[in-house]
Design goal:
One of its GO terms (cellular component) is cytosol. Pfam families: Glyco_transf_20, Trehalose_PPase. In the N-terminal section; belongs to the glycosyltransferase 20 family. In the C-terminal section; belongs to the trehalose phosphatase family. With 554 residues, this protein is an alpha/beta fold. It contains 18 helices and 21 strands. The strands form four sheets. A nine-stranded mixed β-sheet has the order 9-21-20-19-10-11-12-13-14, sandwiched between helices. Helix 3 crosses helix 8. The longest helix is centred in the first third of the chain and has 21 residues. The protein is elongated. The structure holds ligand L263DTV3. Ligand L263DTV3 binds next to strand 16 and strand 18.
């Protein structure tokens, strides 16, 4: 900024500004400054200018595009073609729309001194950067600083004190600085109609709007200087390195999915002996189990629980010391059908929208949620991604919609999922829903529903019933389960639980998690649950069932 301001202060710059003002008196100036490169979209810009003049004859004779073309940095065939195309298009526009004293497109192809370039920046009413691919591109920032000018420049060109500055920017959405320019008109450079329209808007909006946009831009550019960037970079670095030395790093995955994760040294494998001994010592236990990826492998074709799982759960539920819940994103009909043999099992379905304490009780549903009108917006968007992603499909639940891509090509499916997530978040921004990523799914579900609230509700009910838990175990593999891990640990440290129970938050797979423990896979989980189940059975077996009959005592 300082460098630009010092050039603005040079008398040679003021002289050039006056010269340009005189040359273009009564005209409106649009400026482009680009290297001659196939990616800069110069021809597309010229086509948009041509369309603008054709659609708005009132601008003919008045609107001028000055395109400064810095010499090409390479000499390849593609660059030569871009130069040829640029010249041909400029010539065609000038042949069709020039008049006495008016040339609509001025190409400046030779390299010009910095002060001249800055004089053009300072004079142009609008600046356009139309690159189809680029790095940061600093042209918009330079333009803003030059439009702000300096007191010395104002004096030299007779600008009154307190004169309100204006600047209008049309920028390609594909350049790095685009997201930082909230007052710019953003365009897709390939869309010539849209670029022509943006240029029209830029030159015709009232001055008050041009001033507001300029103020916004100048505030940003002047506050985000080199020192700001250096400071924020250092802060990011410090944050990323915080606790770095106390963490353990692991390389996981193969090929393109290889990544390094850093885990806290407190994160450790759950020892079955350790949890079984805590289980034995305790009398009021709360057990929360996620379904997919936790007690049933993510990859299994048959999604119903096997007989081993059912028998373990049945045994755990029949221990009067236990309150056992399946907490799942799945719908209530399949869960209640699958777990019909486990009469005492609690089920929280659709992430807790529906809760049932045991088979004999009715389903409670969350009173918070407004209707599901949002499905009319979300479904067509999901449909679009289903049509373009082979192997994907939509699952409609009572309160949620899920887009599945487990059977699609893994890389393509993941890319599509990220795009869909973004797309849904923008179209549903005003709806009472959240859009979440899960294992091979993108799910839209009501706001205010989470597995964390389920565990909180169950623990609170146990406390209110006079059975504050002294053992809490929660196992899950997915992002939605992290809410449960967080919730049980905050319940333990807050007033929800009067005494701190033995806590076992456990994720499935070694990965960054809010859980303190991990188990490798579903087989490990089943083995551990089997250990607990055996502990319950053994106790039952050894509880003396002796009936003393006093009648028999003589
Ligand atoms: O909370 P969970 O018990 O882990 O349930 C989460 C989702 O489970 C189901 O999807 C999962 O199984 C699908 C196969 O049936 C698989 O294609 C997908 O990748 C898994 O995420 C269920 O269909 C979803 O509605 C649940 O939200």
């Amino acid at each position: 900024m300082g460098r630009l301001e010092s050039v603005l202060n040079q008398s040679s710059t003021a002289i050039k500004v006056k010269e340009i003002q005189e040359q273009f008196i009564g005209k409106r100036l649009i400026l482009g400054v680009d290297d001659m490169d196939v990616f800069k979209g110069i021809s597309l810009k010229l086509l948009a200018m041509e369309q603008l003049l054709q659609q708005h004859p009132e601008l003919q004779g008045e609107l001028v595009l000055v395109q400064i073309v810095n010499p090409a940095r390479s000499t390849g065939k593609d660059v030569q073609e871009a130069i040829k195309e640029t010249k041909l298009t400029a010539r065609r526009i000038n042949e069709n729309y020039s008049s006495a004293g008016y040339t609509p497109v001025i190409l400046i192809e030779n390299s010009i001194p910095l002060h001249e370039k800055i004089a053009y920046y300072a004079t142009a009413q609008c600046c356009i950067v139309n690159a189809v691919r680029d790095g940061m591109n600093l042209v918009p920032y330079k333009y803003i600083v030059c439009r702000q000018g300096t007191p010395k420049m104002d004096k030299a060109i007779n600008v009154a004190e307190g004169y309100s500055r204006t600047s209008m920017l049309v920028v390609s959405e594909f350049i790095g600085c685009s997201p930082s320019l909230s007052g710019a008109i953003r365009v897709n450079p390939w869309d010539i109609d849209a670029v022509a329209e943006a240029l029209h808007l830029a030159v015709t909006v009232p001055d008050t709007e041009k001033q507001l946009r300029h103020e916004k831009h100048y505030r940003y550019v002047s506050s985000h200087d080199v020192a700001y960037w250096a400071r924020s970079f250092m802060q990011d670095l410090e944050r990323a390195c915080k606790d770095h030395y106390s963490k353990r790093c692991w390389g996981i995955g193969f090929g393109l999915s290889f990544r390094v994760i850093s885990l806290s040294p407190n994160f450790r494998k759950l020892s079955i002996d350790h949890i079984v001994s805590a289980y034995r010592r305790t009398n009021r236990r709360a057990i929360f189990l996620d379904y997919d990826g936790t007690i049933v492998p993510q990859t299994s074709i048959n999604r119903a629980p096997g007989s081993e799982v059912l028998s373990i759960l049945k045994n755990l539920c029949s221990d009067p010391k236990n309150t056992v819940f399946i907490v799942s994103g799945r719908g209530r009909s399949s869960l209640s059908e699958w777990f019909a043999p486990c009469e005492n099992l609690g089920i929280a379905a659709e992430h807790g929208y529906f809760i049932r304490w045991n088979k004999n009780q009715d389903w409670e549903s969350c009173p918070l949620v407004a209707g599901v009108d949002w499905k009319r917006i979300a479904e067509p968007v999901m449909q679009l991604y289903t049509e373009t992603t082979d192997g994907s499909y939509i699952e409609a639940k009572e309160t949620a919609l899920v887009w599945h891509h487990q059977d699609a090509d893994p890389d393509f499916g993941s890319c599509q999922a990220l795009e869909l997530l973004d797309h849904l978040e923008s179209v549903l921004a005003n709806e009472p829903v959240v859009v979440k990523r899960g294992q091979h799914i993108v799910e839209v579900k009501p706001q205010g529903i989470s597995k964390g609230l389920v565990s909180e509700k169950i623990l609170t009910t146990m406390v209110n019933d006079g059975k504050p838990p002294d053992f809490v175990m929660c196992i899950g593999d997915d992002r939605s389960d992290e809410d449960m891990f967080e919730s049980i640990s905050s319940s333990a440290s807050s007033a929800v639980l009067p005494v701190t129970p033995e806590m076992f938050a456990c994720t499935v797979g070694q990965k960054p998690s809010k859980a303190k423990y991990y188990l490798e896979d579903t087989s490990d989980v089943i083995r551990m649950l089997q250990g607990l189940s055996t502990a319950s059975s053994v106790k039952h077996r050894f509880v003396p069932q002796i009936q003393v009959s006093f009648d028999s005592v003589a």
